[in-house]
Every structure is written in structure tokens, then in C-alpha cells.
Amino acid sequence: MAEAADDRIAEGKLDLVPMIDCIMLLLLFFILTTKFTSEEKTISSLLPTDKGQAATKQKTVEPPQQVSICIYPAGLQKGGQPSQYFAQLHEMQPAAINVIPKAWIRIGSADPIELDGSMLHTKNSEQMQTSVNMVHQYIKENLAKFEVGNAADRKAQAPITIQCFSGMSWMFALVAYDACRGYEGGITGRKSTGKPTDFDDAREVDFAPPRIRDYSAKELGEELFEIVNAK
Length: 231
Hints:
alpha/beta, 5 strands, five-stranded mixed sheet, elongated, about 35% helix
């Protein structure tokens, strides 16, 4: 049975609920009625800038440019939804096929080229060499469009990120990576010697981190959506 108010007071116990209610009401009152003065509104103009006190315009920070090389199943077009991409993937990848045989390789907003993976399995063949040369030529022509400033300073160039759909063979990504390094070697005249220091002064070429997913239909569709519509 609950104690009576008089009994609690007699024992020296205070009921804090009314006080807490009053504090909350006062807090809400001050939050809703507070107005900033004109000096507080213009506080940003009083902060130091890189051009002195006379400057009124803040310098905007531009995000670093990045060159994306996207590799995904051949035939997928931009503008689709994740569910549509998964449906198309299911059509071109029957249960009996482990990997998708043909891929589109695209740099930025350029038109993609098609690479047949079966050609890469025939070692030392003319078909394989022709396919690899096609990728190298495509990478060379399109990466040249992103060159800025001094061509000798490779660290100043935009980094390259290779995004390869996880449902495809990584040999597609490796061919693209080799083409990027071949392009850089053609400009600097340096070739890989197998030493860790070979790429200390080279342009950054990385693979996009793999997605952590449970291979569900939703995750596969969303991954394709991000890669196909990447800029």
C-alpha cells in the first residue's frame, strides 16, 4: 500500500516529482522563447579566415576528385532499381553457372567496353592478348582525360578506385588494375621490379572494399545499383 503524503513528510522524505515538472516547464519555456542578438547572428563574420579580417566569404572545401573504374555484368544499364538489377542478374546467371562470363568495364561516364572472361582462360593465346590489349587501350584513352597539372607528379593525380561486382570473377578487376599500372608506367617510364618501394611515388590505384552482406536478393541488387550508377 502506498504511503500517504503526510507520512512521507513526517519521515523527512520529499516528493521531487513536482519540482522536476517545474524544471522541465522552465527549460521548455527558455528554449522556445530565446532569441539571439544581432551580434550572435553575425558571429561567423568575426571568425578568422585565410584572407584576413576584411574577408566576408568563407573558402569552400572541394571534395577530392576520384576516378572510378566500374566492373559489372554486361548489359546492365544506368537508371534501374536494385530489384530490377537483381532480376536481370538472375536471368543471366542460372543456377548451374558460378560466375558471369561477360563484364562491362566503364571509367566515369564514358561508354563501357565488353570483356569476355572465357578469353582470359586461354593462356598465351591470341584471343587473350587481344582482349587484354583492348582493356589497356580503353584505360589509356580515358585516364588521359583526367590528367591535371604536372604529369610527372603522379601523387597529384586523382586516385583510381576499381569497383568490381562481387558476383564476378576477380580476373576482370586484375586486368583493369594491370592496365592502370601499365598506363602509369608509360607516363613515368618506371616498371615494377617487385620491390615494395616501386609505387611510393606512384598514383594511388586501389580496389573498393568488399561489401559485408549475407548474399540476399536485396543486398545483391543494392550492390549492383551502386556500381552501375557510380559516376
